[in-house]
Amino acid sequence: MQSLGDSAKDAAAEEAILSFERRIRPSVLVDWDRNGSFTHSLSDLSGYVSNVVTDRALKGSAPEDLMLIEGSAAAELTFTFAGQHEGLPMTAVFSPYNGYSPFYLKELVGYEVKYSLGVDTVLGTVWYPQFVGNIRTVTPNRASGTVEISALDRVEKLRRPITLTKWGISEYWRTRGRTTAQLVTSTGVIDSCLRLSDVAAGKFRPTLREDIEVPDGSVDGPGLFVTGNGSYLPTIGWLDNTNSVTYNFPHTESNGVPMYRQNGQPHPDSPEPTNKPLALSAMENTDGSKLVYWVADRNHTQVAGSHYLGAVLATDGSFTGGSWHKTAPDTEVVRVRVGNLVVIKLMIGAGKFWGRVSYGDTEAPGTGTNYDSAKITVPEGLHAELFAAWDLGTDHPGRVMVRCNSTTLAWVDVSPTLTSFPDDQLRGVCIVRHHVALSDIGYAYRNISASTASSYFWEPQLRQQAKYAAVLDRGLNRFSFMPNKDGNDAWDIITEVAASEFGSVFWDEAGVFRFWNLDTVVGKRSTPVRTVTLDHLSELQITNSLDSVRNTFSAIVGRVQAIDRGEAYRARTADEFYIPPGTTRRIVLPVSNVQQFDPRRLTRFTSHNEPTWTGTWPLWTDSSQQGYVLQYFSGGTWKEPFIANFTLDISFHLDNQGNAVAEIFNPWSEAVRLCTEDGAPALRVIGTLLQEGSESSYVTTDRASVLKYGARNFELNGDWIQEYYDANGMLNKLLSRTKKPIPATDAVQIAGDPRLQLGDCVEAMDSTGFGEKFLLQIYGIRREFDIDTGLTDTLTVELAEPSGRGIWDSEQYGRWDQTFIWS
Q1: CA 250 to CA 254: how far, in whole Å?
Q2: Angle formed at CA 476 by CA 471 and CA 482, multiple of 5 degrees
Q3: Which runs of E-coded beta strand occur in 142-235?
Q4: Of 447, 355, 366, 437, the residue nearest 402 (C-alpha)
Q5: Which of 133, 331, 605, 812 has the fewest CB atoms within 10 Å, i.e. the most exposed one?
Q6: How far is it, in rounded angstroms, from Cα 120 to Cα 227?
Q7: CA angle 584–161–294, rounded 5-degree value
Q8: How open is the CA angle 458-460-464, to the nearest 5 degrees?
Q9: Spatial distance between the Cα atoms of 159 and 428, rounded to a whole number of angstroms
Q10: From the CB of residue 147, how many other CB atoms can be counted at a distance below 10 Å?
Q11: Are the beta carbons of 758 and 770 closer than 8 angstroms?
Q12: DSSP string, 49-64
């Protein structure tokens, strides 16, 4: 239920809304200038409106008979208005073909609209937001002289195609007791989809190529973004091979630290700033969690240009590790290998933050020459926004600038001009060592030098404040792999994930995205927001039915595990990897079960068994991996070259879209192919494979309900029902609601209350009829304002367990051993 946050105004509004003599007025605003100011001469249509209807209802995936308050809601607004503007009737104003209209030849759809209801009270008019969304249709009617506009809420902002990272939990680490830390929460998946749609539970979302006006596939743009909000999987980028990542024991196992704590940075516009997102926990001086990633497309990574690296550091001392940065030794927390053995790093130590670039860093301890920026003292508070930018080039010395919150240190020359370019097979690898609590970790690149465009060195090249705020519960579901969802709408994935745990997702009346888990929905039943009697309700009827009983849940769970050093790909034919002379060939491979490839370039083997050959190259056998056999075309035949340096540059990686890609450079003047002397294809590459296991099932039953009603099963299956589905005891929570009949009701109509929201419970009273007290929980609201008849709500409700059971002083619910029952 909406509150004004002022007890006196809330009381005055309560009295006005429930009185028989009340005055409610609409406010309809449209941002015709698309600048958020709503100052266009026709932005305020309130005075012209005759009828406004909002319609929002949770539509779930469970059978309607179960009466579970869950699902997703996309609200719709429709309003009708008439009148004149500067001598023109509204039907002419909103015709794009009238040359006198201010909208002549302009599109009228897509503009943001805000709708509120004002209640006149003794303290003045108080306003309750009802809808924020975007215009979908505009319909002027010449005959009636009216214009009807319809709009959908911000669900349309969630139509961006999403590619989920390829990932399954490591079998290696599972067998070593590191299971819980590997699992990903449903919240993490939802938030990842939101970040790419300009919505976030945290402050930041990654800067996309469309923001910096470069084409898709450009080398410029985002390389990595990790929210840390219940998931260590990257929103942009890819997880490395399983043998590179490490996991600490989580809190449910011995001597451990939970993978996440609720001390992330909330969005500045969050209406619930204490409901913080999760962040990667501070491991302090342990090495239990090293998260290793690859940039979105490693072949787009290059040294010369501008590099941007940032993260949000949680400095809340009330959490374990929240103050460790104050006394920490010089510690690397995030690094990105940009190529040619050059590595950029975010450093903390002794309460300071700075940026570092290392030349000749081979990952071995003590290697490389370090060049540091000036240091910034990490401020007191709850969060520090760390940001650093490097400008590296071949025509000027390298330089770096750093920023922490509002403090910025100017550019400083810190390293020599790039002159050597050693081979670097780890180009594009990113490592996060969360000794401190981190979230919103990102890396981006621009192919621009400061000497030509210094204005490009600013934080929005890496990250931007998300336009819309989200408030997300901690999901009850736990995932052990990501299903294949390449190109699905963000909204479709979000609703599937929420439905898998009977949660709810929707945009609220103020335009904030909400995710409620099952606990939140059920918890609202303990605090009814108002009381109604049959004087308020009309046409209430209750239907008791056995159909609502489900006392057995059978979950059909999927299983995928990540297997390290498996065969990720092998050539299928002798000519599959034919490369013309002097060319680079990029080949998209028909595989979808590879989490990551081995980053090493492939080794040349030989298919000849003579000692003079095997002394130069290893012999190709059935067990050979990460290599190839080469033939070249000469004299009209294919043959294997007997030349020591006759090799190819072959690498495998995942591109921006998650496609498995082979890139092969043939520098020679002859065409080549990869096969043996006897014509058998000869290329094999290893990596981390996603191995799908057989489905299994488990059954959860309420025995007492089965004995009373007979077994009534509800089968759970789908992409998001996985082996750790019931890790948080979710099925027992569901059984408590479905093990006995839940009476169903039809929609009920009451005098409109602009404060009521989805999920609210109202306490109904009908002592001589349905009962002295019973609860109705709202999962649908159709709210209509009419200039003649006022405000009316049509509510779709679920009847909850009678709240009056066992009340001492209740005439109906205090009868010993009848309505007052101990257990």
Answers
A1: 8
A2: 90
A3: 146-153, 161-162, 169-170, 184-185, 199-200, 204-206, 221-226
A4: 355
A5: 812
A6: 44
A7: 50
A8: 150
A9: 30
A10: 24
A11: no
A12: EEEEEEEEE-B-SS-G
Residue indicated by tokens 């009949």: 741
CA distance 591 to 570: 11
Residue with the larger pLDDT of the pair 299 and 145: 145
The two structure tokens encoding residue 46: 């309130």
Rounded to whole angstroms, the Cα distance separating 227 from 196 reads: 11
On whether the CB atoms of residues 465 and 203 are closer than 8 A, the answer is yes
Element (H, E) at 473: none
* Strand 199-200 versus strand 468-472 pairing type: parallel
For 344, the token pair is 């950029």
pLDDT in tens, 450-498: 655 555 668 999 999 999 999 999 999 999 999 988 888 999 999 999 9
Residue 563's beta-bridge partner residues? 689
Look at residue 801 in the predicted model and tell me its pLDDT.
65
Strands 552-570, 169-170: pairing is parallel
How far CA 443 is from CA of 211, 226, 344, in Å, comes to: 15, 10, 10
- At residue 612, the pLDDT reads 61
Rounded Cα distance between 427 and 424, Å, is 6
Among 311, 291, 294, CA closest to 223: 294
Residue 456 sits at φ, ψ, to 5 deg, of -80, -5
| pLDDT at position 806 | 55
Give the C-alpha separation, 63 to 106, whole Å.
Answer: 45
The pair of structure tokens assigned to 225 is 């973004």
> CA separation (Å) from 378 to 281, 324, 480?
18, 12, 36
Q: Which letter does DSSP use for residue 520 in this model?
A: H
Residues across the chain: 823
- Cα separation of 505 and 780, whole Å? 13
Backbone φ, ψ for residue 445 (5° rounding):
-140, 145
**Token output for 109:** 């759809």
Question: 586-621: per-residue pLDDT in tens?
Answer: 999 999 999 999 998 899 999 987 656 656 788 999
Task: With cut-offs at 50, 70 and 90, classify the pLDDT of residue 772.
Answer: confident
